[in-house]
Amino acid sequence: LDKFHIVIMGKIYERRKEQPTPNISMGELILDKLRENGDRVYAIDGPTGKRITYREILEKSVKLANFLQRYGIKIGDRIGIATENQLNWIIAVCASYYLGAIVAPYNPMYTEYEYQHILNVAKPRIVFVSQRTENLFVKMLPKLSWKMELMQLDDQPLTANIRTLKDILNNEPSVDYMRYKATNIGDSSRHPLTILCSSGTTGLPKGVTLSHKNLIAFLIKISTHEYMDTQDGDRILMLLPFYHGYATGTMLLGIYSNCTMIIMPAFEPKLFLNLVQEYKITHLPLVPPILTFLAKHPLVERYDFRSVRELICGAAPVAKDIIAMVKARIGAKCIRNGYGMTELSVVSGLSGRDDDDNSFETPGSGPLLPGFLAKIVDLETQETLEAGQVGEICYMGEQLMLGYWNNPEATKQTIDQDGWLHTGDTGYFDNEGKLHVVDRVKELIKFKGYQVSPSEIETVLLSHRAIKDAAVAAKSDERNGEVPVAFVVKQPDAKITARDVQEFVKQKLSPQKWLYGGVQFVDAIPKNPSGKILRRELRKMISKL
Ligand code: ATP
Ligand code: MG
Description:
Layout: E1 6-9, E2 12-15, H1 26-37, E3 41-45, E4 51-53, H2 54-71, E5 78-82, H3 89-98, E6 102-105, H4 112-122, E7 126-129, H5 131-140, E8 149-152, E9 163-164, H6 165-171, E10 192-197, E11 207-211, H7 212-222, E12 235-238, H8 245-256, E13 260-263, H9 269-278, E14 283-286, H10 288-296, E15 310-314, H11 320-330, E16 335-339, E17 349-350, E18 372-377, E19 391-397, E20 403-404, H12 408-414, E21 421-429, E22 435-440, E23 445-447, E24 450-452, H13 454-462, E25 467-477, E26 481-490, H14 498-508, E27 519-521, H15 535-543
Parallel strand pairs: 3-13, 5-6, 5-7, 7-8, 8-9, 12-13, 14-15, 15-16, 26-27
Antiparallel strand pairs: 1-2, 2-18, 3-4, 10-11, 11-20, 16-17, 18-19, 19-21, 21-22, 23-24, 25-26
This protein binds adenosine-5'-triphosphate and magnesium ion.
């Protein structure tokens, strides 16, 4: 256990930290980094090659902060940002941080229905939009119960009276950005930095409030040699959507470690491969669908991946076979598995360099990050369980969110009176003190007295040659409570029957995991861009069976 410095107290696991996290604001931290790096390029837009240096961000973000302050933005005000991945995003985010305003990034693909919900959570005073999102916001403005102003991050607004970032910066007097000071936020563990949306996999997205200290603690750890090992001048390819916590974390990591971000607004196979090669990418933070692409796409073998030092896959389970294929195809020594949730400041466990070989046995396995305590509790009795026993994973520690914004009820349901956050995921600790994630509590299929994990059955299905994609869910059943039903996407031209699929599962898994609920062939599995199966959509599909 020495290897991970994990202290086991009874049935509680703690990964202690060597240094406490300093009490500084994210604004001050970023200003220092921007000043230090001067002419270094912070970000390059992949498709166009347009770039922005640390100094340009410094000058523009300080100007924007001055403008926003005169506009009336105060500490604690919320500022939304609803754009696709683009260079100006970081300017708006930094300016807001300096003022102690709270940044709420939104998915630019949300529909009006989804925005009606999520805007009401943070009630931002300003939202930065892009050409893609502007019209929808303009349409929504009159229906809101508070005053909100739109500002355009792209150079041209679609509506005449909307200010653009460009105009704001052109009209703003020059600033002494080397001496500018961020607003004092007091205790960094109490002051909110950002309200991030959870992915909305199980229901409507929640407004996860993270403090300055939450994310600073994350940056300090994740940048070290043991984890991302980010160093001066490293190049990180960013295709993660900016509105997600995984991306906010990675964008800030770039600044914290003096790196250059190569940004992709949307995933496109050839562009992705070209960028890796052209910019000699050192870090690839990815999600499972991109790993599948790397494992299977014919183009991949023609590209040089030797510059990549760290490849991380997180956000959803990934099949072991896929990992093996990617390693062989691109010559990667190690692919790390990151498990976490927005509520835990993105990541709580990451497989290490040395324990890579077995770290994909189960998704999310790996040692705790320093600064976390964890335990496994019985789903019914809430009793703390021993190593090897499966129950709900609970966490405590400095990366735990402040709560759900403006929703004390939901916060109370997630963080108990003793301060343990209940993840809603099940898993177990092995004898080495490593965590293994099994599945979401709510998705477990209750077959007679058994708890069956859909993702275990999905992994088996995906190992079948004729199956391109699959999802398993619970169907209610009079005799057994619930039974597993599979939705299967066939490979093109594959000839496979429902019966074949059922037989295949029978060969591999014990009887409680057989597909008693049947097999439905579908054209596609509903997923979000990070490869999470949209469980709420599956439930709708089942209700129609
Ligand atoms: P919502 O809470 O809105 O329903 P979400 O839980 O998918 O959506 P996120 O915070 O983005 O929102 O994702 C965290 C969840 O993703 C975890 O609780 C876990 O179920 C899953 N997850 C993350 N990383 C991994 C991983 N490496 N392996 C398996 N599951 C993972
Ligand atoms: Mg969640």
